[in-house]
Amino acid sequence: MRHIYQCPLRWSDMDAFGHINNVVFLRYLEEARIDFMFRLAREAASGAFTGGSVVARHEIDYLKPLTHRHTPVTIETWVAKLGGASATVAYEVKDDTAVYARAATVVVPYDLEAARPRRLTGEERSFLLEYMDDAAGAPAA
């Protein structure tokens, strides 16, 4: 199963060359990840990720320039790898005609009070396992 997020493109997302700037893709991925891990996860398991999480790594393969338009871009999100204290979230940024980018983010659960990483809870692990698709993988480094 994959999480589907419809991400609007903003006029200000374009760079001087007329396409969506590479750094903006990180914002798009963040929006999709927040919708997945905070809104959706908390609807499924109320205690999921309430203690916080941090990004340990981003990886993006840009496949085709994306230009501004009024229709949103689709970001599909799934779990490519699940460890005891981290999850690799993979993405495709696409529409009906093209895949513009493939990406992955390593997310580490974090204890905000203790200011240190923590292990995934049972609730978090159960939620993430529903979106596990290790066959699809993540972009190659």
Q: What is this structure, in a nutshell?
A:
The chain is of the alpha+beta class and 141 residues long.
Indicate the CATH class. Answer: Alpha Beta
Low-pLDDT stretches are none
CATH 4th-level superfamily: Hotdog Thioesterase
Beta-strand segment tally: 6
Averaged pLDDT, please?
91
How big is the Rg? 15 Å
Order of helices and strands: EHEEEEEH
Largest sheet: 6 strands, antiparallel
**CATH topology type:** Thiol Ester Dehydrase, Chain A
Commentary on this structure:
The protein is α+β, with helices and mostly antiparallel strands. It has a single domain, classed as Roll (Thiol Ester Dehydrase, Chain A), CATH 3.10.129.10. The chain has 2 helices and 6 strands. Strands 1, 2, 3, 4, 5 and 6 form a 6-stranded antiparallel beta sheet that branches. The longest helix is centred in the N-terminal third of the chain and has 23 residues, at 22-44. The protein is elongated. The mean pLDDT is 91.
Question: What structural keywords apply?
Answer:
141 residues; 2 helices; Thiol Ester Dehydrase, Chain A; elongated; alpha+beta
SSE layout and pairings?
Blueprint lengths: L2 E5 L14 H23 L8 E10 L10 E10 L4 E8 L4 E13 L4 E2 L4 H9 L11
